[in-house]
Write a structure and sequence with these properties.
Layout (H helix, E strand, L loop, with lengths): L7 H4 L5 E3 L10 H10 L9 H15 L6 E4 L2 H7 L7 E6 L4 H8 L3 E6 L19 E5 L11 H5 L7 E5 L22 E6 L1 H4 L7 E5 L1 H7 L10 H10 L2 H26 L5 E2 L7 E5 L3 H10 L2 E5 L10 E5 L3 H14 L8
Parallel strand pairs: 1-11, 3-4, 3-5, 5-6, 6-7
Antiparallel strand pairs: 2-8, 7-8, 9-10, 10-12, 11-12
């Protein structure tokens, strides 16, 4: 299998304590479940234009945009799969980062230039590293798996006439107040922002997200989509999760994640030989450990799944990504990792 096609759900086999997947919780909250249960009665008919419009209006109101600037997706991953429809000549993809955009672009025969950030520089973004001739630039903010949150103005500086700037904000609702989000930016030329509802609302099995941008760009992106590309339940989920009460709940959850992340950073960074990449802003952490492949295998033997990170360009077998969890659960990872590090006896 192409390493770029590897995802954390492959590492999180049933029966393992899951630190490989970044979804918060094992099921949607009760209020959202009830919205979806109510929507089941509409499954006897095809999703309507009214259903789609209602979802787009909720998204538009959330971000201060017009409904025409919203394209509802069957998960943010669909947005990456649609990028080749924009027909770039050269796409610059910032790495280490989510690999699906590069997979989609290369599969479509589009040239891809990798812009590698440097651990010695904190994996910061340097706009000058992007080739001038690139007519598409793709990056995550915060970036998966480094957990780096790039300043909005620095990201915005990558835009220029004739270039599409694609910003993956799949994890931005896990940052309190979304301080560096460009989701409400209607003026930067060529800007396209992808958002996901999967992580915060435990909707990985439903696939729900959306794309924000100029209507002309969205029209080009959507030109090859089949009829009814987003189902009734996903449309209802997008509408529900973009309403003001849900946005407020998401921000509260983001503040809780930040507290848990601080606890995990302190606990993990205290382990001998373990380095936690900082600063970190996402609901996951990038670790550097000695003998990473062995450590990962020993953690698995102890019943714990972590995300291998050597499938991300620029990283190695000694890098692992771990999801942020509450201290009472994260403590299990900390103790297991302590035992799995080189120099300790193998777990049984």
């Amino acid at each position: 299998m192409d390493p770029l096609a590897h995802h954390g759900d492959v590492d999180a086999e049933p029966g393992l304590v899951d630190f490989a997947v970044n979804v918060q919780g094992e099921r949607p909250p009760d209020w959202l479940r009830q919205r979806l249960v109510t929507a089941l009665d509409r499954l006897g008919r095809y999703p309507s234009g009214a259903d789609d419009l209602a979802a787009r209006e909720a998204v538009a109101e959330r971000h201060g945009r017009a409904p025409e600037e919203v394209l509802v997706l069957a998960g943010a991953a669909e947005g990456f799969a649609l990028l080749p429809a924009l027909r770039p000549r050269l796409a610059a993809v910032v790495h280490p980062g989510f690999t699906e955009p590069e997979v989609a672009l290369r599969t479509a025969g589009i040239r891809v230039h990798r812009v590698l950030t440097d651990a010695a520089e904190g994996h910061r973004l340097f706009p000058d590293a992007v080739p001038d001739e690139a007519d598409m630039v793709v990056l995550g903010n915060p970036t998966n798996p480094t957990s780096v949150l790039h300043p909005a103005e620095q990201v915005r500086s990558l835009a220029r006439p004739g270039r599409v700037l694609v910003v993956d904000e799949a994890f931005t609702d896990a940052t309190p107040g979304e301080p560096e989000s460009l989701s409400g930016d209607r003026s930067t030329p060529g800007l396209v922002v992808l958002r996901s509802l999967t992580k915060t609302w435990a909707l990985a099995g439903l696939r729900a997200g959306y794309l924000l941008g100029h209507p002309e760009l969205l029209s080009r992106v959507a030109e090859a989509r089949p009829p009814w590309p987003v189902g009734t339940l996903a449309l209802e989920a997008v509408r529900a999760c973009c309403e003001p009460d849900a946005v407020a709940l998401a921000d509260l959850a983001a503040k809780e994640i930040a507290e848990h992340r601080r606890w995990m950073i302190d606990a993990l960074d205290a382990l001998p030989g373990v380095t936690v990449h900082q600063p970190a802003a996402a609901p996951f952490l990038l670790l550097h450990v000695p003998d990473g492949a062995q450590v990962r295998a020993r953690l698995r033997a102890a019943g714990i799944a972590v995300r291998r990170a050597d499938t991300f360009p620029g990283l190695t077998e000694d890098h692992l990504r771990v999801a942020v969890r509450a201290p009472e659960r994260a403590g299990v990872l900390v103790e297991a990792l302590r035992s799995a590090l080189p120099g300790t006896a193998p777990m049984r």
